[in-house]
C-alpha cells in the first residue's frame, strides 16, 4: 500500500490518501507513519481517503486495526475526528465496522462514501476533491456516481 500525507495546518487537518492493497500490516504501518509525521498534531482532524485502494482486510483484521487505533498508546493520538472515505459496498461495510469498533473504544471515527459529507462531519473545508468519479478498485472498472 502506498500512502501520501498532506497537512493543512491552518485548518488543523491532515489527509492521508492510499493506493494499492490495504492489509493489516500495511494499515498498522501507515497509521504509525502518520503519527510519526512531524506535521501531525494530536489536535488535527484526519481524513483517511482510501478510495484508491482495494481492501484485503478480514473482519478480524478490521477489529485489530480499531484496537490498534485506540490502544493505551494509540497509533493516532487524537481527540478529534477521523473520517474514513471509501469506495464500494464491501469497503463501506468494512469502514462501518471500523467505525463501530473504534467508537466503542472512545474514538471519533466515521465511515463515508461521499467526500462532501466527510467534509461536513469533520467541520473543515476540505480541498477540492482530486478524485471525483474515481474508479472503484473492487467494481471492475465501473465509475462511482
Structure description:
With 145 residues, the chain is of the alpha/beta class. Helices cover 32% and strands 26% of the residues. The protein has a five-stranded mixed β-sheet with strand order 1-2-3-4-5, with helices on both faces. α2 packs across α3. The longest helix is centred in the middle third of the chain and has 15 residues. It starts with a strand and ends in a 23-residue tail after the last helix. The C terminus is likely disordered.
Summarize the topology.
Blueprint: E1 2-8, E2 13-22, H1 24-36, E3 45-55, H2 59-69, E4 81-85, H3 89-103, E5 108-112, H4 115-122
Parallel strand pairs: 2-3, 3-4, 4-5
Antiparallel strand pairs: 1-2
Helix pairs in contact: 1-2, 2-3
In short:
The chain is of the alpha/beta class and 145 residues long. 32% of the residues lie in helices and 26% in strands. The chain has helices spanning 24-36, 59-69, 89-103, 115-122; strands at 2-8, 13-22, 45-55, 81-85, 108-112.
Amino acid at each position: 500500500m502506498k500512502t501520501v500525507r498532506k497537512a493543512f495546518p491552518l485548518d488543523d487537518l491532515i489527509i492521508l490518501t492510499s493506493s494499492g492493497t490495504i492489509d493489516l500490516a500495511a494499515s498498522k504501518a501507515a497509521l504509525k507513519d502518520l503519527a510519526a509525521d512531524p506535521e501531525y498534531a494530536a489536535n488535527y482532524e484526519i481524513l483517511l481517503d482510501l478510495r484508491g485502494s482495494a481492501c484485503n482486510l478480514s473482519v478480524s483484521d478490521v477489529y485489530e486495526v480499531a484496537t490498534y487505533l485506540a490502544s493505551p498508546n494509540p497509533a493516532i493520538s487524537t481527540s478529534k475526528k477521523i473520517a474514513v472515505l471509501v469506495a464500494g459496498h464491501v469497503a463501506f461495510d468494512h469502514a462501518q465496522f471500523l467505525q463501530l469498533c473504534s467508537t466503542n473504544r472512545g474514538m471519533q471515527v466515521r465511515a463515508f462514501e461521499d467526500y462532501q459529507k466527510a467534509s461536513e462531519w469533520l467541520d473543515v473545508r476540505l480541498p477540492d476533491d482530486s478524485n471525483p468519479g474515481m474508479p472503484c478498485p473492487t467494481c471492475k472498472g465501473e465509475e462511482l456516481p
